[in-house]
Amino acid sequence: MRKYTFHFILAFIFLSCKQTSKQENAFASAAFTSLAKYPAKALQGDFDLLVSSLKEGHTGIYCYTTAQSFDSLVAAQRAMIQDSMNGFQFYNIVSPIVAATKEDHCDINLSDELKGFLRQQGKFMPLSVLNSGDDTFILNDTISGQSFKGARIIAINGMPIQAIKEKIYRTFGSDGDILSSKIAFLEGIKLAIEYAKVIGQPESFDMTVMNPSNGSQQTVSVKSVTFDALKTIETRVDSTYHTDTNKPPASFEYLDGNTARLTFNTFSNSRFRKQHMNFQEFTDSCFNVLLKDKPEILIIDMRENGGGSEGNEDYLFSWLTDQPYIKYDSVELSRFEFSFINHTDYAADSDRIALYKELREENELTGHGKILRKKGIYTPTPPRAHPFKGFLYILTSGWTYSGGAEFCSLVREHTNAVFVGQETGGGYYGNTSGTMLELTLPVTKLSISIPILKFNLAVHKGIPGHGVIPDFEVKPSFESFSKGIDQELDKALSVTPAVEAR
User: Fold this and answer.
1) Residue 461 CB partners (closer than 8 Å, separation 6+)
2) Which pLDDT belongs to residue 24?
3) Of 39, 41, 115, 432, which residue is most buried, by most CB within 10 angstroms?
């Protein structure tokens, strides 16, 4: 096994070298001369600070990636640094390192200079898309005056669409080996934006598309568009498909006399407050109605829930069980103080002092040499004496993440609920999140969110490196999306309650 692992690492490094070399050329044209260029020594300083900060602060850095493979990637990427590189070229060298932490809370963001360049001078594919597994469908009404709505993209500038997405996937992380969150992220105009960040910004694009009705293919040349034009495409697509971009934090309804649907689009208390709602009061009121009416089926929709305020996930779960449960095996901290703190959003004396005080008040060094959250700092909501006991269905997607995914793990672990949709974007066994240190690299000004608390759920039924796997997987189709059909909900309604006895 070690031999095969070594060969895989070598292949990955070779691939990375070839791809980054092409990216360097893509961002070295005259179109990018207005961007600042940095000496190699300065870039190496930013690079080394990033790597050392990740190793020091990211508590779960080796949860899915071995130290050996991580260091091999670091060495290969550092060797690509050259003199007079601009921010886009450097971004494509360091972003795979951030992605290699395999933690979606650990993210890298462009500098203000690069964001401004994209808004003012960037060139983008005129595309809004829907992803269905490996397939990508066009949502625009027209492209360069031609109608390709519903067509499947085969290739762009001679590169197969799947190869394009895989190259982009290597620049941002997901929990473990989960693909559902990456697939969801590259929908809408995000594919066009990430293409511009990672692959290039040409004046035009040769797009090969396939008509799904008859399988015929054609290649058409389309001109690039500005960022403002791309945002206009997004607005028109949202209007065409009646996409609700301002969903309430939660809602409750009866689909029929025997089936209720409870939707949580977030666990964020601040989002509830903005809508003059209270999470706990809303949750209690819904379950009080359910206990009074006693519907046979409850569908809980978690497809848009990317987490939020800690504790809301188990507060909701407590209404689904009358059995005692443990939420976390442990919550682990990497250290009490950080050498890179002056390069973060906690650089001010008052912020740094408050952070260090909080970390020491809530965590302690154990006899095993680990820093763990103190007992009694957080206690999960106890089970209810009278929980909902009917048939339970959970709708999930790649956006089901962080606290939303933790809720799903608890439900999978302790109930017979049926899951419908896509694999959750959050890992089954927990995540590294909580307090985030926003590191800003002093030269290039790229920023990296470094999570410092590793939450280890007290569960055991999952697959390492994955989220909750649905009992009934549903791949979005363009036809259903265009007609406003809710495929996951329809599938849940079509499954008989007898499945619960699986």
Assistant:
1) 412, 413, 428
2) 53
3) 432
